[in-house]
Amino acid sequence: MKKTIKFFRILFESLIFSLFVTLISVKADDLKSYTQPFQNNTTTLSGKSVAANMYFTKIDYWELKNATLNLNYKVSQLASNQSSDITISINGIKFYSFRPDIKSGMQTKQIKIPIKLINGSNNLKIYGQIINESKNNSTLASTPANWLTLYKGSNVNFQYTLKAPEFKINSFYNHFSGADTISWGQSVIGIPKDASNGELTAATYALTGQTRTLTTDTDQLPLTSFGSSNEKNANYEIVVALYKNLPKEYKKMITSEDVNNKGFLKLVYHNDKHVLIVTSQTTNLLQKAARFVANSELMEETQTSTEKISGSTRTYSSTLKYNGVINLTNKGQKLTGAGHQEAEFFVSLPTSRTNAAGSKIRLHLRYAKNLNFKNSLATVYINKNIIGSHRLSLSKADNDDFTVTVPSNLKLGNSLVVRVALDLMPRSTVNTDNSETPWAYIGSDSKAYINSQEKNDLLFSNYPSLFIRNRTYNQIAVVRPYKLSAYDLQTITNIFNLVGIYAESNTGYIRFYTKKPSNEVLKNKNLIVFGTPKNNSFIKELNKSLYFKFDDKFKGFVSNEKLSIEKNYGKSIGTDQLLRSPFNKERGLLVVTAAHDRDVYMATTQINFQKNITQHSGDAIVVDQNNNIYNYRFKKKAVINKKIGLKQNIQENSKLYVYLLVIIFVSIILITSIVLLLIKNKKSTYRKGQLKNEKQ
């Protein structure tokens, strides 16, 4: 009996131990990790007091367990390790200080961030004082050798568990579009294997609607076909298909009444997978439903598991028309502490526009009255370029406004950083810079007034501005292969990833075609053509217009004035070519082509992210299978619209034209005066001659 009891006790204890181990294992498996890099570029801060702001977000469905700041930095080799210090704060609350090691090379510091201080959106501030070593003691003298460099690549690593999504469309959307979900490849958009052009257009609307919300330049939301490995492995999927083309397991969940004269969204949980079905019986309503999915506001507001979209449903994204006036800060920003303090503000322009003459930055400041006003300054930078300074004064401490003009020749790009540097010098000299008595406040009515003009050069340095106008798709017609391979779907993903990032509104026009479009479409639309000559016959017709042309049998590229191409090498390269449309010289044509669909996809790896496209300034890109990348320019004149080009030329050289007009006007007056004097003298001489004759 005792042996039996002992046996069951051992068995019970073993079961308890096994259960405990299993639970521990489950908890360990459930613990997720995600690293969010800061968007800041490598920057150097100079002065005895330095500060920089970085920003990161915490996703709302995380149960946060740990957060670690990985700070990559380097300090001056002349700094004193006894007096120099760096302090970290989050959302205005200081939580960590340390003295940096004084040594050569980049250093990495891992710092635990108190999770109680972390909100949804977070401002992490790094500031301190870098003080140079002296033989006698440390000195606060500000020299170029007082510096701290913060390297790109600094990040925050999160460890967390996931909150399960609620059975609501908005909850599904938050998980589906989450940066971690996309980074792990757990989100996809699925379409039928033989998707129609209408289905492909709808899926592209949904795709670009999601890519505009992405915050990284490394992750993409893939477009894939039903049954692919990507689709099978994803936990979250948006299915876009006509009702007749839905997979059987999804079609039986939706009745014909659900899709009768309407688009329909239905959330389902099937095979441990969260799926949002987007469907309709007609192409127009399917695309209407896809525009609903592309509208983040509507998706975040929908707290049901189904949604019906009629022809009258308003699905367009709310967007303010760009008028050139941009608030630098909505809440204002306060800077505290003696010495050099800085605040950075990010300003974005529509991708189709660039800086024109007359842009200005207007700042509204308030600051402490206990400053040494002989040495206290405000300096404004744009993308590291100084554009103006302003001396602070006691009489204006409560209400100081000043404006600086942006040089007309300063290229701003699609985004710019306005940096305001304030040198807040206290009245008396102190030995440390830890006092927070000196302060300044940048008011919420500080603005950037950016006079801009349409980009008009058909070059990759302006891509994808040709395909974006007023922050939405600009009349895009896409000619694609008749049969779409897995590589072709990756090609579409790459092409529309960057287009989607800049398309802030979902109201524009995209259409897919499998054959040569009508003359009306060719004349009035901007064209994107991709594929091989074998699977897209339209490329054969365009071959005579290409910079890199195929041989007579369309099996590979041939040499041209820019590149000598060996026969076999020509079969293994992919090209991106940005041309004037042969059907309308004021429209553009992007041709992405190669002899094989894999190489077509490889070519699009140069036009999928901003970090890649900025490396190319010409109008043709070549990528080979060893990932060698070449950039060429063929067009001597890149202006696509001559009328706009003339207008821009006048704007850019307005002062020169004024001077020329003044010179011409003065010349006319001088010439007229000389002519009148000559006429007058001639008349006078003639009269004298007459009088002389009369006397004789």
Describe this entry's structure for a reader.
The protein is 25% helix and 31% strand. By secondary structure, it is an alpha+beta fold. The strands form eight sheets. It has a seven-stranded mixed sheet. Strands 1, 2, 4, 7, 9 and 10 form a six-stranded antiparallel sheet that branches. It has a six-stranded mixed sheet with strand order 12-11-13-15-14-16. A hairpin with a 4-residue loop joins β36 (620-624) and β37 (629-632). The radius of gyration is 33 Å and the shape is globular.
Number of helices: 15
Q: How confident is the prediction overall: mean pLDDT?
A: 85
Question: Alpha-carbon distance between the termini?
Answer: 170 Å
Helix content: 25-40%
Which residues sit in consecutive blocks of at least 5 with pLDDT less than 50?
13-28, 644-652
Strands side by side in the biggest sheet: 32-31-33-35-34-36-37
Kindly state the number of beta strands. Answer: 37
Integer-rounded radius of gyration: 33 Å
Envelope shape: globular
- How large a portion of the residues is in β-strands, by DSSP E? 25-35%
Structural class: alpha+beta
Oligomer: single chain
For the largest beta-sheet, the strand count, sense and barrel status come to: 7 strands, mixed
Layout of strands and helices, then pairs:
Blueprint: H1 2-30, E1 32-37, E2 43-46, E3 49-57, E4 62-75, E5 85-90, E6 93-98, E7 107-112, E8 121-129, E9 147-150, E10 155-162, H2 169-176, H3 179-183, E11 187-191, H4 197-211, E12 223-225, H5 229-233, E13 236-242, H6 248-251, E14 263-269, E15 274-280, H7 283-293, H8 296-301, E16 306-309, E17 325-327, E18 333-336, E19 339-348, E20 353-355, E21 360-367, E22 377-382, E23 385-391, E24 400-405, E25 415-424, E26 439-442, E27 447-449, E28 452-454, E29 468-469, E30 472-473, E31 476-479, H9 486-502, E32 510-513, H10 519-524, E33 526-531, H11 538-542, E34 573-581, E35 584-594, H12 597-604, H13 610-613, E36 620-624, E37 629-632, H14 642-652, H15 654-695
Helix pairs in contact: 4-7, 4-9, 9-12
